[in-house]
């Protein structure tokens, strides 16, 4: 009886409709990135769809939310296993460098993820879109497979141990580094940022000053306040380090 039910189920199983040329090409591009035969193409189509309206729930944002959590778990587990003699502070700092938006954007750019977006017509992409898509892709992989398979794909194809090792001594945020140093040395550190008109007078730029012990030591201008402060902090880092050699304590493996 059970065999009869199995045969009946097998014979009368609904056939999956063939993919369109567009979907087939999209599937092959995803396969080339992740290295396995994807099962549910709809997950990946959602991962690379932009939010064009409030009612458009089938976009990358939900999968980005999931992918962010899955990636955090994968990296935490990897660091715990592969850095057995490192303390919590080192692992936290290294994880921060790995999941930093700037690094995720870079990974997304290397994979050319923005080329896979399904609905870009008339849409201005944010500067963080490649990093957002990177996390959405991980969310889709997780739902399409399982945690262990997703972990193998992430560490084997998307964010390899070699890339992680390269980040150990890399400075991701000069602003954070300056803050850490100033607190340790008990020196006052502040930023003064003002909005200015650009030479073309069509757009505005932000100029940020690094103020150490009440004195402006460097400044920089950029298209956003965040970028201006980071750029000014970078200049302050090199200026102070060249003169006094006091900012050389970059986190090292314990």
Automatic annotation (TrEMBL):
Main subcellular location of this protein, as a coarse class: cytoplasm
Location of the active site: 68, 135
Reported cofactor(s): Mg(2+)
Protein location: Cytoplasm
Keyword hit for Membrane: no
Biological processes per GO annotation: mRNA processing; regulation of gene expression; rRNA processing; tRNA processing
Entry-linked SUPFAM superfamilies: dsRNA-binding domain-like, RNase III domain-like
A single Gene Ontology CC term: cytoplasm
Gene3D superfamilies: 3.30.160.20, Ribonuclease III domain
EC number: 3.1.26.3
Residues annotated as binding Mg(2+): 64, 132, 135
Molecular function GO terms recorded: double-stranded RNA binding; metal ion binding; ribonuclease III activity; rRNA binding
Alphabetic keyword roster: Cytoplasm, Endonuclease, Hydrolase, Magnesium, Metal-binding, mRNA processing, Nuclease, RNA-binding, rRNA processing, rRNA-binding, tRNA processing
Record function comment: Digests double-stranded RNA. Involved in the processing of primary rRNA transcript to yield the immediate precursors to the large and small rRNAs (23S and 16S). Processes some mRNAs, and tRNAs when they are encoded in the rRNA operon. Processes pre-crRNA and tracrRNA of type II CRISPR loci if present in the organism.
Family assignment from sequence similarity: Belongs to the ribonuclease III family.
NCBIfam families the record matches: RNaseIII
PANTHER family from the UniProt entry: RIBONUCLEASE 3, RIBONUCLEASE III
Name of the molecule in the record: Ribonuclease 3
Organism: Bergeyella cardium
């Amino acid at each position: 009886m059970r065999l009869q039910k199995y045969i009946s189920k097998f014979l009368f199983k609904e056939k999956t409709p063939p993919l369109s040329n567009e979907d087939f090409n999209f599937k092959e591009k995803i396969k080339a990135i992740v290295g396995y035969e994807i099962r549910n193409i709809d997950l990946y189509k959602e991962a690379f769809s932009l939010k064009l309206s409030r009612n458009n729930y089938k976009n990358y944002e939900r999968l980005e939310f999931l992918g962010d959590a899955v990636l955090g778990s994968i990296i935490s587990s990897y660091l715990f296993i592969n850095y057995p003699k490192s303390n919590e502070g080192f692992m936290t700092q290294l994880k921060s460098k790995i999941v930093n938006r700037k690094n995720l954007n870079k990974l997304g750019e290397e994979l050319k993820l923005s080329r896979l977006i399904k609905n870009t017509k008339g849409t201005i992409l944010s500067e963080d879109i490649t990093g957002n898509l990177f996390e959405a892709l991980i969310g889709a992989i997780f739902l399409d497979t399982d945690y262990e398979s997703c972990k193998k794909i992430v560490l084997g194809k998307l964010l390899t141990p070699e890339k992680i090792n390269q980040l150990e001594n890399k400075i991701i945020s000069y602003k954070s580094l300056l803050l850490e140093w100033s607190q340790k040395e008990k020196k006052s550190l502040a930023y003064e940022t003002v909005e200015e008109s650009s030479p073309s007078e069509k757009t505005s730029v932000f100029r940020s000053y690094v103020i150490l012990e009440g004195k402006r030591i460097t400044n920089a201008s950029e298209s956003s306040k965040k970028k201006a402060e980071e750029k000014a902090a970078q200049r302050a880092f090199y200026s102070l380090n060249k003169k006094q050699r006091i900012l050389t304590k970059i986190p090292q493996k314990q």
